[in-house]
Amino acid sequence: MPFIENGFIYFFTCVGVAASLAFGMIWLCSAIRILCLYAQWQLDEAIKALKTKKQLKREDVIKLIEIVDRMPDKARGVE
Length: 79
Description:
Layout: H1 2-55, H2 58-70, H3 73-76
């Protein structure tokens, strides 16, 4: 009966390898999808920032700088 026992061992080894490859591919695809969603979000945020920058006028930027300079250091996150 060693041939049958070896057959079972080979069968379950092949099933284990196939399952590892399948779950590995699922994990890889989900990781790539998450990275793509994050890249898309970063791109959308960059486009919003560029649009906002184009809409700001020089006087608005000067007012923002003055407002930030009047804030206490701890409110700005400076230690």
